[in-house]
Structures are given as structure tokens and as C-alpha cells.
Design brief:
2 domains, two-stranded antiparallel ribbon, 3 helices
């Protein structure tokens, strides 16, 4: 374990503690498990960016700029 590698048989007093830690972490620890490097990277989900509504300046998520749901559903004054 890491604790065992770092704390057993330390010289008294330690002259260069940082060098002791570096040496023990590189030499005394077991090698990494086989296959640890071959893990597939985690797939990230697609994040849809925030857009500002052209009508009311409300923020909403969409792939392209335009109107929010409230402004799209409202009947326009010119249509009435």
C-alpha cells in the first residue's frame, strides 16, 4: 500500500524528505493494473446552448436562435 511504501524503514533523521517520497513512490509501489490504460473515454452528452429570445429576450435552450416557446405560441397582432 501507499502508507507502507512511504512509512517503513525511514532514515532518522531524514535529510531530504522530498527525495525519499519521490523514490519510494516510483520504486516501491506496484505497477498499475493491466488494462487500466485501455479504458474507453466517457462519452459526453450533447449540451444544447442557451439562446436569447428575439421577442422577449428570455433565455431558452435551442440549437439555433429564434423565439422561445411562449413567443412562438402567442398569436401575433398582425394575424388578428
Amino acid at each position: 500500500t501507499i502508507r507502507h511504501a512511504l512509512t517503513t524503514e525511514l532514515p532518522q533523521p531524514p535529510k531530504h524528505p522530498a527525495k525519499i517520497v519521490k523514490h519510494r513512490l516510483t520504486v516501491l509501489l506496484p505497477p498499475p493494473l493491466p488494462g487500466a490504460q485501455e479504458l474507453a473515454p466517457v462519452r459526453r452528452t450533447l449540451v444544447i446552448p442557451l439562446q436569447n429570445c428575439d421577442g422577449c429576450d428570455r433565455a431558452f435552450r435551442a440549437t439555433a436562435p429564434g423565439h422561445c416557446r411562449g413567443c412562438r405560441n402567442e398569436p401575433t397582432a398582425t394575424a388578428a
